[in-house]
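Lecture 7 notes. Example A: sequence first, then its structure tokens.
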Amino acid sequence: MVSDQLISKGKEESKNCEAEVKKQNLTNRRIELSLGVTVNVGDHEFVKPTVGMAADIEDGASAQTAYLELASEIMTQLRAMHALASTGKLTQLLKQMG
């Protein structure tokens, strides 16, 4: 899957940046990321499940690595939502909610 390839490539690139980030003394760092995907659920109906998460980054840790780990977790959640959407269960849940 393309997203997995991007995450893998990013992990390799983050190794090069880690030494530079470790030289910095940064505190109170937080990253936030939201990703969504539009899914055709039939009869010209679409849903766009979106997952957003935030993570704190410890001193000396690579922001890029933390970002990639967060993106990976979000992609896992989006795949689960996509599976629900493709079976129609997500649409049923959304209709029940409002």
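Example B, a different protein, same format:
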Amino acid sequence: MADGMTNKKFAAEDNHFKKCCEAAGIPATPRQAGKFKRKAGRAYKDGLLEVKRQQREAKNGIND
């Protein structure tokens, strides 16, 4: 792989990826990790948007 990290290791160690999976409501699997790195899949499409929204709200002091 170009990044030198297997999908299995990425899924287990990358906290940002785990947060995106949690926000999308899916498990952090090696298959999702591969999709995430290719900018595809539910973790990337749904989870990343939710994580960014949460970060923006936290920065602006907005609560649910």
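Note on Example B: The longest helix spans residues 41-60. The chain has one domain: 7-60.
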